[in-house]
Design a protein that fits this description.
Strand order of the largest sheet of chain A: 1-2-4-3
Structural class of chain A: alpha+beta
Helix content of chain A: 40-55%
Oligomer: homotetramer
Largest interface: A-B, 15 and 15 residues
Strand content of chain A: 15-25%
């Protein structure tokens, strides 16, 4: 199992993940991606889906036309882990 | 532009769309789809995406692993229209 | 129905579609797209699929890992039409 | 690395994979899937893509509207391996 990150580790990760925000309870990070249209938004989601399924770590996300809202947390650890940081980094690269 | 449905038309549509619920404000319908796993959930989303883009009418939806929550409304009509009913019927068929 | 393009129209279109080749029989155009990996290749295919379904005009294509080979023709016209040119242009933009 | 299957192992696998054919050179298996329309064909491809990326073993496939032609082989083993059998079984389940 993957361990929960410490406050220091989370702070350090958020320096690199400059487009992501920590939720008030500290248990998740969120980011909103905005694309040109639905086609680009769903193309992004498909590439993320492939990466997420391979990592066996999936986002909580919602989509309205060209906008994709993402929330990352690790349920089994009841908070943030290295898996969330890795998935956030991959999503940043794919966007 | 597509016209807003009347209360009578909405009631009639919901008889057929037995798995969908009208939101309290009467402006949208919602349904939760649950699949076996992420692969099936995202496969469903891809087929719906193809249908939605062709209709030029897109769902508001969120996905957490094997669950897909859908909300349908027509922004340009500020409420429910025939487009929402058609997309709901298509989603029921694809699920 | 969409009309077959004349030789002059095909020649003119191929000037703009500089990465596409006319097949020897003159009935189709082809292009090979190469991406960084499977994720990017399939993300491209998904965006093209959304565009193609909306146009109601679909590619003949094959995929091996990061490579996508495309052949465009219009069966109902027994040759190339404006639909093939439009889809080729969209694919170039999406790649 | 995954080992090439022996002739006996291939024969045994093909009993279970009754819709698949061995190519004449014995290096690959093939199957044609036919769906109702492009939406269903591409939905199938998306689910297979998720499975394949996770296995790190990808199909060679082509798509024309509602038809998907698949060829499975393991390049690194220069022939058929257990990975091809597993992917074929998954594709049969997803179709």
């Amino acid at each position: 199992m993957t361990d929960q990150l410490s406050s220091t580790q989370i702070t350090s990760a958020l320096v690199r993940l400059s487009n992501w925000s920590l939720t008030q309870d500290g248990l998740a990070i969120t980011r909103t991606f905005v694309f040109s249209n639905f086609v680009d938004a769903f193309g992004f989601m498909t590439r993320v889906a492939l990466v997420a399924e391979k990592m066996n770590h999936h986002p909580e996300w919602s989509n309205v036309y060209k906008t994709v809202d993402v929330r990352l947390t690790t349920h089994s650890a009841n908070g943030l882990t290295e898996l969330d940081v890795k998935l956030a980094e991959k999503m940043d690269m794919l966007a």
